[in-house]
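We were asked to recover a plausible sequence for a given structure. The inputs and outputs are reproduced exactly as logged, with field labels preserved.

PROBLEM: sequence recovery
POSITIONS: 160
GIVEN STRUCTURE:
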């Protein structure tokens, strides 16, 4: 059986980021973009990271340029944009595809687990993975990371 911990990304600095190193921790994986109407969600993601990170949550930003060319920057530009504009200090990965035949395996797995409806259809889709590496829930771009809809699912993971 495949779990989220079977996948690996690469950081903005070009270093491997195997999710296996996070085994036992819940993850919130989000496909991001710097020039999107939902880009201000970086602030809410940072807030969720600060609130739930001490309990073990790892927020992971995964930039993609698949929707409207809204992430044209280099890894260095993406990192600088996120830090300067939103104070992001949660892990940010290198840009990948999240849809189509070249989609990163994590995003293909999401579709296998939750069906076609869970496929990222725009920037800032969010995927909540439980402590066992199972896809627990997913949220569209419209669900703000700090909304009750999302935080109540996070609270369930940590507090039952």
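RECOVERED SEQUENCE:
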């Amino acid at each position: 059986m495949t779990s989220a911990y079977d996948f690996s990304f690469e950081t903005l600095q070009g270093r491997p980021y195997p999710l296996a190193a996070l085994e036992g921790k819940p993850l919130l994986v989000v496909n991001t973009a710097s020039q999107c109407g939902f880009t201000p969600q970086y602030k809410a993601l940072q807030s969720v990271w600060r609130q739930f990170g001490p309990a073990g949550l790892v927020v992971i930003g995964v930039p993609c340029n698949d929707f409207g060319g809204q992430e044209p920057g280099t890894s260095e530009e993406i990192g600088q944009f996120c830090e300067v504009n939103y104070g992001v200090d949660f892990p940010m990965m290198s840009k990948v595809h999240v849809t189509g035949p070249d989609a990163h395996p994590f995003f293909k797995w999401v579709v296998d687990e939750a069906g076609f409806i869970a496929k990222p259809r725009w920037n800032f889709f969010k995927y909540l993975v439980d402590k066992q590496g199972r896809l627990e829930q997913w949220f569209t771009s419209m669900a703000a990371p700090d909304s009750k809809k999302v935080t109540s699912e996070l609270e369930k993971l940590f507090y039952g």
